[in-house]
Amino acid sequence: MPRLLRPLATALLLATAAFVADPVPVDWAMVARIREEGLQRSRVADLESYMTDVLGARLTLSEDMKRAQAWAVAEMGRIGLVNVATEPFMDFGAAWDNEYVSLHMIEPDYQPMVGYPIAHTPGTSGKVTADAVIVDLQTREDIAAWRGKLAGKAVLATPPAAIDMAPLVSGTPRYSEDELRAREQTVIAPRTAATRRIPNPAIVTAEERMAFFKAEGVAAVLQSESGWIGAVRGFSRPGSRNDRWSAAGDSAAPVMIAITPEHYNRMHRILQREIPVKVELEVRNRIGPRVEQAVNLVGEIPGTDLRNEVVMIGAHFDTWHASPNASDNTSGVAVVLEAMRILRAVGAKPRRTIRVALWSGEEQGLWGSRAYVREHFGNPNDSTSRKKPAYDRLYAYFNQDYGPGQYRGVYLQGNEAARTLLTAWMEPFRDMGMTVVSNQSVGSTDHIAFDEAGLPGFQFLQDRVPGGGGHTNLDFFDTIPVEDLMKNAVIMASYAYHAAMSETKMPRKAALR
User: Fold this and answer.
1) Domain with 485 in it: what CATH number?
2) The sheet that has 394-399: what strands, in order across it?
3) What is the CATH number of the domain that holds 245?
4) pLDDT one-digit tens code per residue, 440-467
């Protein structure tokens, strides 16, 4: 070897030795077993189908949710998990279930309409026929102008829905390589203090608007906030946490029904021509007689020498009520249950305990996961929740919620020190398109409960996929790319296993203040 090249060769040998001695190795033999079990003997489609087709929608604290949670507890037992438990976390309100809805325009033309009652609103007293009227309440002057004029009316309370034609023309393409690289390279903007908005006393709030309609004795409030043809969106009524979502035995809101944009807009256009519109409707909602506690579900694969430390995976089990919510978030629940099944099937003996959590109250504001973090771990930066011993024993939490698309990477949530570990565990799945470690932070789902407390909480970067109308009446099993869920369960199982076996501690960042 030429003398000038010897230093370079030595450097390469040292670099290679350092790489081999990397403290975060991948157990390739275990990855092979996980892949074989998860790709050749997958049960994820069966789990997804049973939850969507048989169990259906699962509004937090509804009777449907209670039935589904009983099934999930039994399913965890069948998988072979231990310490399976239901954990109450708060007085959530009264149970609310929609039993029946019928909606028709009967004048000036007949048309059956697609609509669903807004959650936690009452039903009608049998079948109701009502004249429709457009009511745009913005100010207190508007309230004064309409006072005494709305009894028995069906109020169209929102502007015409703007139809989004893009999904019909182009569909929803998966992420391109350029889009993935952008997520990998984007620099996080520094956080700034939020600007406090001062309310305008002349403007009517959503809560005040609904209280006025209730006091006026309207037959129903009709609305459309979808913009997606055939889809109904908007399943939570205006109100504060103090409303307990639905009051025991009654509701402070009027009957509220969300309608598909094309049906709602047709009525709106007819009324704008000053031609009368008459509707016939009947809604039966069952509201429980008392306030009850909502619960989370947990189950475990016990650890060995580090059993007191915990790796968690999870997804929210609760949904809205107008469809089985196959994508949001039945797909996530199917993936985490399948990941636990895979680990049990391959005989994994993790050093740390692996715990799965199925959350409630996510759709209303991460209530279940936030309560869990406070109860089990505390928060050293929260004056109402002290740091608990288990806080230092949580290794990491991994979440799925952003639809059924396959994992393409993972978000760091600004925790740059975690990049080495999360990248190393990604290596066996590059053939599945798992290539991106993004420095971005994403929100609006349960990993945030951990992240804001300073605990390592991560959400996978998922592909966009066609169909799967989350938060709509269109979210059914038929729209789910099952192969994506199979891959996700394999990756989730592998990440949980390697986290549970790692010699390297997962780095942490400062809690939000």
Assistant:
1) 3.40.630.10
2) 82-93, 292-301, 352-359, 306-316, 394-399, 457-462, 407-411, 436-438
3) 3.50.30.30
4) 888 889 999 999 999 999 999 999 886 6
